[in-house]
User: Which sequence fits this backbone?
């Protein structure tokens, strides 16, 4: 792989960012100081609308979000992100009496909530867990996308063979099911292995599981 290509791949990969949305300036300042102290990349927003205006594309990271804010609240922002297909993991910051709202938020996909007042280390632990969750989700999405692209290169017959091969059926049984010769199945199977870039049947099964 050339140096230019390697450099290009590094440039395309974005560093994860912790997005903090809270209308309380004191909390924003405290979180900013905390994340600065541990060298975690972050961006601070005073309102949900400000966050939406400046983040039109989904970026890697997580969102630390106050559940109660003037105007567009935390739950409303979560619903808007869901509508946009944004899967950014959300940690809700809740006050006394907000637990039912936090439970509702988690039922809609939030990864965690933390109650005020909270310890710095507790928040950092939750943030690191959310960042790990986001990385895992992105890896799954990337694998799914890669498999989908390879699947699109298969002919209809090759897709039929692929779907039967991953069930563990031998070639002669697949040939009988499709009404073709065993040699024809062997040829299609070889093409499937080549196009899917699979080294073994196990590789094909793993790919099929991501569909």
Assistant:
């Amino acid at each position: 792989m050339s140096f230019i290509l390697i450099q290009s791949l590094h440039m395309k990969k974005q560093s994860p960012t912790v997005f903090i949305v809270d209308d309380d300036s004191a909390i924003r300042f405290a979180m900013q100081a905390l994340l600065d102290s541990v060298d975690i990349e972050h961006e601070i927003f005073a309102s949900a609308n400000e966050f939406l205006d400046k983040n039109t594309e989904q970026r890697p990271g997580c969102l630390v979000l106050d559940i109660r804010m003037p105007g567009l609240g935390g739950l409303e922002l979560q619903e808007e992100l869901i509508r946009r297909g944004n899967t950014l993991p959300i940690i809700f910051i809740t006050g006394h009496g907000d637990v039912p709202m936090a439970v509702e938020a988690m039922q809609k996909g939030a990864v965690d909530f933390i109650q005020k007042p909270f310890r710095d280390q507790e928040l950092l632990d939750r943030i690191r867990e959310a960042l790990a969750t986001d990385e895992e989700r992105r890896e799954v999405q990337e694998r799914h996308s890669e498999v989908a692209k390879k699947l699109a290169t298969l002919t209809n017959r090759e897709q039929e063979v692929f779907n039967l091969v991953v069930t563990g059926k031998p070639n002669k049984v697949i040939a009988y099911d499709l009404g073709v010769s065993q040699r024809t199945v062997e040829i299609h199977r070889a093409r499937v292995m080549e196009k899917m870039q699979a080294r073994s049947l196990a590789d094909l099964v793993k790919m099929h599981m991501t569909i």
